Amino acid sequence: MRKVCHDFMARGGLAQYDVATKLAREMVSRPVLYVGPDDSVELDKFGDFRSGYEALSNSHRYMYHALGHVRIFLVAYQKTGEAEFLVRARRHVHDWIEDNFEETPEDIKYAYYDHGAAERLGVMCTIWSVMRSVNASAIDTAKIEHCLIAHARLLGSWSFTGRHQPVFIHNHLVFQAIYCLLAGILLNKHPESDSWRQHGSDILAAQVDGLISSDGVSIENSTGYHLGLYRVLRDCTALLLSTPIALPSSVAGVRKRIAAMGSFTERMRFSADRMPAIGDTRYTPNLPIEKSLQVTREQLELSTRLAMFPDAGYASIKDDVGGQREMNLTMIASALSQTHKHDDDLSITLSTNDGIQWIADPGFYKYDRSELSMYASSVMAHNAPYLADGQYEHKLRRAGLDGEEMTASDLVRVEGWHKHYPGVLVTRHLLWHSALSTLVIEDQVAAESRNETSVTVGFVLGDGITAERSESNSWTLWHRAFDISGPSIVFPDGSAICEDDATVFPMGRPTSASRLVITRPFVNGIARVQTIVTWSDLEPATLIDTVAHSRVRTKLD
Question: Which ranges form a coiled coil (predicted)?
Fold first, then answer.
């Protein structure tokens, strides 16, 4: 069981074995609390937060009470066997118990916030198991066990389960379920362990059913949260089921839905370890990767260019664009929940498997109401049509996607719509010409009122990408630092401009970026914009004429 606990602790992020060992060594010489590899805050001389917590970010408060620093020390101890790491972990746990369990906590909100309390129970399980394995003093072990049992009772209570979130279906409850199950397995001789296991199993089954769409996608509108939830469910259920303790059948029953999550994850990857930063997701900076790490449709065993996830509201087109490169084009119209949602319906991203994001979703900044955070989630920061003065109101079930692959003509069609502006229907048609390595984007905005004057379509370029004007309506994308060429973007309806007012957030750091912008007027209540994105060598005029003759009528016409 000790190894199961450690494997729980070492899943991903800062707690990966090698990363944790490096950070633990730094934390021994300089007491800090890490939220990210480059995001830390100094602890006081006692290595604790005994005062001044109000000045800290919510993320740091959460991480401290989740015992994130203890988790790093425990994983480093498992990796190296160095006693110093265990000593530090033990001291920090005892400090937390004395300040926040045996006494009324100063920061009561985050001391018993649902997600942090769940992660802390996992840490308590692990250190209790380790202390027993090294024959620690009975007093040490008993103190931790007493706190562990109290936490298991807390997380095993329906009143605590429904206390923090306005809805019962939420990713935080997955962590409550998993650690409730872990405590029930670890303390399997405790008279309440059966109820902990059953409670955890009931919550887990409900969360998987409610949080994951019928096509295997997290409904929380974020590729980052999808990936995190998928890894937690995949790895933790496998670990739980590997123990000799019998678990309710519903735990094994969630594995089919987890496998579907894996299919979506593979489809959305544009390189070995990268996905578009949709919703509240950290943007990964552009960086070329070795050929050996580049993924292709063939390697992923994807038999089709198009994958539709209509229930969740995602589309993905993968295809060869010449020179042993493959592109990954995504479009989103997700409308199943508001959680982690940005104003991004009908937004596209365009990446290549050499690790470059040409048209990018800028990603997530911080969980606050700062100007940059508000910008990062706004419609202006995404790649879709918008009304500059319109009131964008995201509502459930007011957006959708449809698509098909027409193999006989080498065409792929995707169409989407949303009604997030009152009295306005926004539609986007994508037509991918495989033989020409060309994408045609047709946007239409129809307004009931004649008060609207113009619609704007913008394309945010990834970090380090420049746009060079080659003709009046054509721009060629380059990553000059890496000497990598990208597609050309052609605007047949009028001249676009390149602005330097965009921002992307690689690993949460605001970074200036460019965006191509075109604005078109409304005529009789309708505004239309056409954009062509191409890797073709054809002259723009020839290309425009060629694609004009292959127009496919869509369901939204």
Answer: none
Task: Please give, one letter per residue, the 3-state secondary structure of 143-191.
Answer: HHHHHHHHHHHHHCCHHHHCCCCCCCCCHHHHHHHHHHHHHHHHCCCCC
Q: Contact at 8 Å (CB) between 93 and 121?
A: no
Closest by Cα among 198, 196, 71, 75 to 122: 71
Contact (Cβ atoms closer than 8 angstroms) between residue 178 and residue 196:
no
Quick count: other Cβ atoms within 10 Å of Cβ 514?
22
Note the pTM of the prediction, 2 decimals.
0.85
Domains of the chain in sequence order: 1-156 (no CATH), 305-549 (2.70.98.70)
Tokens coding 83: 């006693």
Burial 383-395 (b: 16+ CB within 10 A, else e): bbbbbeebebebe
Determine the 3-state secondary structure of 293 from DSSP: helix
Compute the distance between CA of residue 447 and CA of residue 455 in angstroms, rounded to an integer.
11
Helix (H, G, I), strand (E, B) or coil at 529: strand
Under a CB-based contact definition with an 8 Å cutoff, are residues 383 and 297 in contact?
Answer: no
- Residue 176, C-beta contacts closer than 8 angstroms, at least 6 positions apart: 114, 117, 118, 155, 160, 161, 200, 203
Distance CA 329, CA 319 (A): 9
* Of 152, 160, 146, 156, residue with least CA distance to 183: 152
Q: What is the pLDDT of residue 303?
A: 73
| pLDDT < 70 stretches in the chain | 1-17, 36-38, 44-52, 291-293, 295, 298-302, 323, 472, 549-557
For the sheet containing 356-359, what is the strand order?
306-309, 314-322, 325-332, 348-352, 356-359
Backbone angles phi, psi at 208, to 5 degrees: -65, -40
